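Re: that backbone. Tokens:
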């Protein structure tokens, strides 16, 4: 089942109310952060290609490379397939990322079908593509498809926010945080938004690196 789709700020607010009722520490977090953002993004090939471009580079570098790709019309599968590695590298992609871009272009993903596919199927479809890991797939499901009940426990900011909010001795590993998040179903995507927002507040207060 696809489950609930987050489409508006009201959907996020509904999830916040539910989370605060079942876990008082979320109420503490939201009291500090204020209303949580919608954070919806487009879906489709270009969004995943942008995620690949952004891997392991600064935000500024990713934006610059993406601007060059857009200017060259290199944001569709056909355009990527019609360009060799040298052409992609000339636009700023590393050899590895050029390979990932081509793998995505050649994967033949039916992005429209993903909109109605179960989240587990979305993730398994995306991680089958070289260069796309589970974090990217879960973020895509969360923000591009608007799934209300998906989490990204491999995210370091979520791990650190959970450590702080729940008073844990150590930052929870991915498996532990995934298990913790089961208690926040069916609004795990809103729990993630709350933890990210709380992380930013805590970082400003405590100088977290």
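Recovered sequence:
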């Amino acid at each position: 089942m696809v489950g609930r789709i987050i489409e508006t700020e009201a959907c996020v607010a509904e999830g916040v109310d539910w989370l605060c009722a079942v876990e008082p520490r979320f109420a503490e977090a939201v009291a500090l952060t204020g209303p949580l953002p919608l954070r919806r993004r487009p879906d489709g090939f270009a969004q995943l290609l942008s995620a690949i471009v952004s891997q392991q580079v600064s935000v500024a570098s990713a934006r610059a490379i993406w601007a060059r790709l857009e200017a060259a019309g290199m944001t569709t599968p056909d355009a990527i397939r019609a360009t060799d590695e040298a052409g992609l590298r000339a636009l700023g992609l590393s050899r590895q990322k050029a390979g990932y871009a081509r793998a995505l272009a050649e994967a033949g993903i039916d992005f429209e079908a993903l909109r109605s596919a179960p989240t587990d199927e979305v993730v398994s479809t995306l991680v089958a593509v070289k260069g796309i890991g589970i974090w990217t797939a879960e973020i895509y499901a969360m923000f591009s498809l608007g799934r209300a009940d998906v989490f990204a426990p491999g995210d370091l900011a979520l791990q650190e926010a959970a450590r702080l909010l729940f008073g844990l001795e150590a930052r929870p590993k991915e498996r532990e945080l995934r298990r913790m998040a089961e208690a926040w179903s069916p609004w795990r995507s809103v729990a993630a938004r709350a933890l990210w927002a709380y992380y930013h507040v805590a970082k400003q207060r405590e100088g977290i690196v």
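The chain has a mean pLDDT of 95. The chain has two domains: 9-40+149-206, 45-144.
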